[in-house]
Design brief:
Layout: E1 4-15, E2 18-29, E3 33-37, H1 44-52, E4 59-64, E5 67-68, E6 79-82, H2 94-104, H3 109-122, H4 138-150, E7 156-160, H5 168-185, E8 188-193, H6 196-202, E9 205-210, E10 213-218, H7 220-225, H8 230-235, E11 240-250, E12 253-257, E13 262-266, E14 277-282, E15 288-290, E16 299-309, E17 313-320, E18 323-330, E19 339-344, E20 350-355
Parallel strand pairs: 3-8, 3-9, 6-7, 7-8
Antiparallel strand pairs: 1-2, 1-4, 4-5, 9-10, 11-12, 11-14, 12-13, 14-20, 15-19, 16-17, 16-19, 17-18
Helix pairs in contact: 2-3, 2-4, 3-4, 4-5
The chain binds adenosine-5'-triphosphate (ATP) and magnesium ion (MG).
Length: 356
Amino acid sequence: MSTVHVRLIHVVKRFGTTPAVDDVSLDVLEGSFTTLLGPSGCGKTTTLRLIAGFYEPDQGEIWIGGKKMNDVPPHRRPTAMVFQEYALFPHMTVFENVAYGLRMRRLPRREIEERVGSILEFVGLPGLEGKFPHQLSGGQQQRVALARALVVEPEVLLLDEPLSNLDAKLRIRVRTEIREIQRRLKKTTIYVTHDQEEALSISDVIAVMDRGRIVQVGTPTEIYHRPANRFVADFVGLANFATGRVVEASDGRVSVDIGVSRLSLIEEDARLRPGDQVVVSVRPEAIHLSLHPPAQENTLKGVITSASFLGSVTRYWVRVGEMEWIVDVPGGAPEGATGERYLFLPPENIRVVEKV
Ligand SMILES: Nc1ncnc2c1ncn2[C@@H]1O[C@H](COP(=O)(O)OP(=O)(O)OP(=O)(O)O)[C@@H](O)[C@H]1O
Ligand SMILES: [Mg+2]
């Protein structure tokens, strides 16, 4: 049932000599909520602007709904974009802001009034037509920006860090609202953020970007649990990394010598060979911490160097040989937990994230 709605094929965009977007290919499925996630400067906004038509690619093709969009100007593309800043017109009322795109399309006044009224109701802002942006809260302004994009009934909604000006609590509320609205409309949405938690919580699909390239595309759980490389494991969530040497690899069972111990793990990558130098990663919450040695393989013995109560978990730093491991244990901290502990690393939770 899922058809490709937006397709980028080997898209390159350079500013000067450095590529801001470097050979990006991506399929966005119809009706999906797809997020471009990556650190500042990795090319997210440039990618979105290329899709909207504000930039032309130096190389590659952009397709929307089976039509090639290269050389099609922004106002002829079936897209609407909410910009990184609110980008509401400060001297215009809410009504005029939302009506702007419809006026540009020279729709009759009656139709404009109807559509603006119903979209404001839809985003939960009825009755605010006469207000100016400075008379609204940040969350309300954001919803006006969303209404202004939705009112022209775009096929594809492009949202560039729409929550970056809101405080932490409001961000969570508005992102949930945006997701709710997107679900109701089943509108293909491409969302940009550098906030990994935001991306994990609202996306159907995440495309992780690093220095102009897409390095992994997957569902939030795939991105979190099966990071394609060290960058993804590091950027999305917290991870422990250990360097080691493969001592055995057969039938998906791999054994890696990390110096202080040997770790068994399950890794389908058939390219791993004994002797390979690798980096493995383990999430803090995947590690079991115990006072007594568990009668299992994959156990490390260490000493707690510090602990920090974070509310839902307690985070421990445990020194094992030269390395400090981060371990998250659900629940409150036993006061002053110190001393020796055993770390058990379940084989299924250890990933090879790099071959060095
Ligand atoms: N108009 C421009 N002229 C020159 N360089 C640009 C221009 N726009 C972007 N760049 C450069 O291209 C790279 C990607 O920028 P882009 O704005 O796409 O990043 P971003 O991922 O959106 O970052 P942020 O999270 O900070 O918004 C950066 O190195 C940036 O300096
Ligand atoms: Mg940006």
